Amino acid sequence: MWDHEIRAMASTHAILAASVFMATVLPAAAVPGFSVYGTHLLWLYSVSGAVTAVSVAVFWLLGITPPAKKHTVGYKLSRLFRSCLYFFLSCLFFHTVVVLYGAPLIESALETFSLSVLLTSLTTLRCLCVLGPNVQAWIRVFSRHGAMSVWDTCLQITVACTLVGAWVGAFPIPLDWDRPWQAWPVSCSLGATIGFLTGLVAAPAWIHFHRKQLTYKCK
Amino acid sequence: MKVRSSVFASFILILEGIGVALFLRGFFPVPLKSSVSSKNKLSDLPVEPLTGSSPNSSRLPQPLFKRVVIMLVDALREDFVFGPNGRMYMPYTRHLVERGSSHSFVAKARPPTVTMPRIKALTTGTIPGFIDVVMNLNSPALLEDNLIWQAKAAGKRMVFYGDDTWVRLFPKHFMEHDGTTSFFVSDYTEVDNNVTRHLDSTLKRDDWDILILHYLGLDHIGHISGPHSSLIQPKLMEMDDILKKIHSALISKEAEGSLPYLLVLCGDHGMSETGSHGGSSEPEINTPLVLLSPAFKRKAGMEKPGVVEQVDLPPTLALGLGLPISLNSVGRVIPGVLEETSLRDQLRFLHLNGHQLSCLLKDSVPDYEKEAGFEQFRVAEKAHGSWMKLFLEGNTSEVLSNMGKKVLKQYVEALAAMSSALSKQLGKYDMYSMIAGMVFVFQLLLVLLLAMPEALSGDAAVELPVLSALLSLPFYLMCLLLASVHVLVCTSAESSCYFCSLSWGLVFAAVAFSSAMFCILVSLVTRRLPLGARIHGKSPLRSIVSEWSLSELDVLLLAGTVGHTLSLAASSFVEEEHQTWYFLLNTLCLAVFQDVCRKYFREQRGTGDEEESILPSKDPSPKAEIYSEKWLALATPPFTLLCCRLLRSLNQTGVQWAHLPDMGHWLNSSEHRTVLSLLAAFCLVFIYLLVQRRCSWVSKVALALGLLGVYSYRAAVGNVLFPWQHSGRTTSKGTMEARFVYVFILGILFTGTKDLLRSQIITSDARLKSRGLWEIYSGLVLLVTLLFRAHNLPVLCCCLLIQTLMAQFIWKKLHYDAAQTTIMHYWFGQAFFYFQGNSNNIATVDISVGFVGLESYVEGHLLNGPQHLCGAPTLGVPPGLLPQLTERQEPGCSRPWLLLSGPAEVCARCSLHRAGDHSALPSLHMERLFTQITVRGHAPAADCGGLPLLQHHGAEPHCQ
């Protein structure tokens, strides 16, 4: 059963990683003058759009999302609405954190917000897909020994990798090299994407090698 | 031997101080000197080389110039004259540079680009070090051999107008002088008019030989509004007019047959893009050097100016005036200036310069014979001799001039090689002293760490095995080993070494001490190890491993400290170090926030099966209180983050983004003075509320009056407004108001000390002790409030507030141990250092702090004993250990090694210094270290890092 889940996870992650690559390559063919540095915001939106669409589709097809208690249309709509609300709130949250880290408040607000959209689509969206709009569950998963399934562990790893990637991405900004990727927010968004891809690879691998030690409490 | 732990701690701290002093002595290169007060004399000059002998040849050739006018414009940047805007800024000068009989160069000034060291460089030809910056503010007379002294000794009559640093450096040297003080930076017209007003009468007279003018206005404009301000152009036009006036006066005086004049236009240092100076960036070190004289060839058009060192000017001037070159000069004569003289004289000039350099090289480099330059000089001298022989024989063929040119070339190459060897020598560290100091510091630190559990236990005494160590065999073996190492190093030393120059007794004491420490260390280690095994009942290895379990916070603290150390290998990270600290601090706050969330939300859900300790439930506090406490604890980290973000926009520092507008400038502009006044008043009230809580009522009243005094001081100086008077009052120095505050500071400190002593001696009352500590703390806060600039008061306010909140809701409630808390304090302290607008650039040292309440600058304020060292960033740890040693409770003994990260950082930094092949890096680091020491030395308590620790300490006994 575990092997099955790990295999499912690996293939899901492969699809997600492929979507990131496609989101980089396809617009380059479609839009003239597209480049990761030059038209950075466009690349950023295309990656977050692709990751959003693919994760929603894949996780819905896989059916990991906790089953709805009621099957009324109204309940489903309210869940959808709450998910959208959470998505937006999470964007605002990331935006605030990035501003606290020292991003200019007004000057490049669009860039900062785009970065927070990317971070949200790489981290929060996955939580929404796996756990649903349920804050209690989120708190449980992200506390110290709170993982209750393979998917929870996987979520922890990818989210941590993405955030650490974005964090590390801020390092080269003060260097005086004058490279295009030092412009705000290129290095951070690249860092986050690379971190995310690393997380996609690392999570199934880590779970595979630690499957003997992993024991989950009540499911 | 049993020692009380307080005695032990102070002993260790004093010795640490000595170790660090030794280290710093090695770190700051000593100026190289053949001997301090000896001067080069005409009679000492070498004879003109000649194979065979001839009388009357040790005289100098005929001087080139009769009169010299040196016009020094402070902070004149190279592009103000030679740049594309030069034509617009200084049209006459530019015309002379392009068409006149002139030589123009870009003279490179060495860092520190501050006026006094630059004046020293321009007169002595040496390269003054960073230590000289301290002397910049209160310059004593220059005793070294220098151009001015030589000129006076040769009977030249000198006149000086301008910056009074010159007058203080060269007292009684000038026939006539008028100094202007450069401290009132806001004045940029009067300082220059004071110089120019003498000019007309002086230029008409004939009774002087050297005229020196030092104009300060441009530098002041740079400090006020930067190099692109609209004030720059009129000022430069004014300078241009003055130059024109001098030049035409000199031309009109020019008489047939007599020697020509020389007019020198130069800058002492440049100006960075923000208008400051002191560092080593390109615009700061590039200054123009324009020499005007009818003796030079007329120029045909604009050429790219050649690059020379600033120290090349003094030997050139000395030779041009027929004076001996000063002994310690490392400069080489500018060959272009000599071009028009006869070949014999040219060779003679170069020979004189070469001889002086080779003497200096002989004195300062032990294996000087291996230096390429020295060898070249010997060869050239020999060739010169044979040329002279031919010349005196009356040979005038082509061969002679070709040979002469060859000798000339050899001389020029030799001079270049020797000069660069000497400059390199100046930049060398004294490695042996550095290592010795480092070893001391580490030994002491290890002893301190090992003795910590014992010192903090109930009987508060440390058992030091001194006697057994002194009588053991290893002790004598170590002594022997170290002594032999010392002898070996000192006899084979390549360069001068401070530790070697100490007397034998002192060195032996140091060797004995070091080996005793080593033995004590070993015996302490052996005593600790089995003890650990017995207590835990497991193998010692296991217990050590279990100690090494890390929480996320520990990982962050360690990774942050290590990462910061590594980041200092890149020069941009040194320049922008504040960014690193802000970034780390933010991350720290987020990590703490996560910890807090985990604690409180966990509890709420009530998963009792976790091993994490839940709030001690024995105190029956009502539920509402717990809730408010919870929300306050949850709100603290976000609030801290918000504060840090706001403070960050208060002062822009660093290099890349320093020019961006910030709140500090906005507040300091005159139209926002009301806002600044309100803000300052609010901050003062807030500081009072935060600090007064636990003081006695006498101190409370004194504190309130003191803070009122601070406000009136700021009003008197003109920073803020009194509500009842809006204008029409001239700004004074506010000496009276500041002294008023000083009285209260002393009073509060006195009360605090009295309380502390009483609690120690008469009654051992914890409450009294806590009150005494709080009073001392509030006295220091008052001092800092006085010394902070008005717009920086919010920084202090936030510092105190954050500290209070953190101590109350986070550090205690989350059971952070002393090691973690200390490192966090260190990080906060570093960040608050930069929040005040300080940076690693020497130009941001705020010297105005040294004047508060004083009629004139007092250096003692700056070089103020040990505080000055304790504030240095490299020593963040010893003050951190203090509260632990005196707290007398079980602090973070579980992980004392966390504290080791501090000294490890120092060590790693030193190795980085050696490894760093980036040439600018050592000087950057030196600047960094120096700036931080100076800023913290200036206002010992202004280092926010120290304050929270004291408060932490002060808060402790009360809560026990």
Automatic annotation (TrEMBL), chain A:
It is found in: Endoplasmic reticulum membrane. One of its GO terms (biological process) is GPI anchor biosynthetic process. GO terms for cellular component: endoplasmic reticulum membrane. It holds the Pfam family PIG-F. It comes from the Eukaryota. It is a multi-pass membrane protein. Pathway: Glycolipid biosynthesis; glycosylphosphatidylinositol-anchor biosynthesis. The chain crosses the membrane at residues 40-63, 84-106, 112-132, 153-171, 183-207. Keywords: Endoplasmic reticulum, GPI-anchor biosynthesis, Membrane, Transmembrane, Transmembrane helix. This is Phosphatidylinositol-glycan biosynthesis class F protein.
Automatic annotation (TrEMBL), chain B:
Residues 35-58 are annotated as: Disordered. SUPFAM superfamilies: Alkaline phosphatase-like (SSF53649). Pathway: Glycolipid biosynthesis; glycosylphosphatidylinositol-anchor biosynthesis. Keywords: Endoplasmic reticulum, Glycoprotein, GPI-anchor biosynthesis, Membrane, Transferase, Transmembrane, Transmembrane helix. GO terms for cellular component: endoplasmic reticulum membrane. Residues 544-857 form the GPI ethanolamine phosphate transferase 2 C-terminal domain. This is GPI ethanolamine phosphate transferase 2 C-terminal domain-containing protein. It comes from Champsocephalus gunnari (Mackerel icefish).
